[in-house]
């Protein structure tokens, strides 16, 4: 929506909508929209606030300073951004905003979900906010396409689902991504121990192909991000995701994001398309956020044809199960490959699987690190590198335990040695 239309968009059904609408119009008469468009968002806000305050104090009805402030805030929020949600978005401690219809807004702060007094004046106003968000990323939401995922320019993910699918009105979930954990911080939190972290760092530097596995919400993306942080800064990295979540610190990163089909069912760009495209981009490393289908075959082939040092996550129940999952997913490609061929690809592509789990206390941990040591066409065989051995549950069901390390299989030791990662070569058993 153009800036002018936004400012003009009349409010409906609010107690004092007449007043707000009068001042919207007065504002439009006074401002130079083209000039406003050239200002930064922060400058725009200041400009509009000043102008409105002046108008209100010049000829305004009798409003208290507080009422006047609230009216200015409301008109400016609506004109510039996400209306009543703006103050929540500006609040750094809010990690998630959940709008269940116009009257029910919840936020998450420090892991706690709480209801907030924020209200939309009407369903109409909520729809306007939703429209503004989705149209800014060239998506639309209406009865024929009642669910949509979008990303705000500031990085937050937004999901919208509207009636008739959502029974109690338009529903919107905005997730803010907290600053991602680096590997050192994960060690600090007890998500893995120091030795395992250094071993994985060596594996990444030595260009081993590493898969991160785990269940829903087990911390796969977070861990993948931390692992990616160990890639040397001079490498060209291409990341491929459904919804860009990774945030790499390196200087040479190209981020690709898939796109769903439009309302006419056209224009979809899949993870698979992006993996294939990435191969033509001269990447040193390819990072696939999560493999979910036939692109797994392309990724394995890429890993086997010189794009080693690649990283991906997969949904699985154990490190061993991850291999079976990869096999199933790879068989979903249209290439009708016999299972032995797929197995061959997996055996030669994958070097290490890191499996994560979420504890009953909400903690996330590395619970196994396994090296794949099987012969090319043989059954999968894994050799444990590290493991979390849980102890008895503490008070309030807190999970505790210890990490144990195992000796490196010869082939892995040799690869690390050849890559100059000598720290792991001498010792038989780490720690
Ligand atoms: N090691 C950790 N310690 C504490 N919190 C963590 C840790 N790893 C992840 N989290 C938190 O857990 C939540 C889920 O993490 P993440 O998105 O990485 O998991 P996921 O396995 O990729 O989830 P999904 O299955 O949805 O893709 C996030 O809020 C994240 O900040
Ligand atoms: Mg994830």
TrEMBL record:
<dbReference type="InterPro" id="IPR050921">
    <property type="entry name" value="T4SS_GSP_E_ATPase"/>
</dbReference>
<dbReference type="Pfam" id="PF00437">
    <property type="entry name" value="T2SSE"/>
</dbReference>
<dbReference type="InterPro" id="IPR027417">
    <property type="entry name" value="P-loop_NTPase"/>
</dbReference>
<feature type="domain" description="Bacterial type II secretion system protein E">
    <location>
        <begin position="81"/>
        <end position="365"/>
    </location>
</feature>
<protein>
    <submittedName>
        <fullName>CpaF family protein</fullName>
    </submittedName>
</protein>
<dbReference type="InterPro" id="IPR001482">
    <property type="entry name" value="T2SS/T4SS_dom"/>
</dbReference>
<comment type="similarity">
    <text>Belongs to the GSP E family.</text>
</comment>
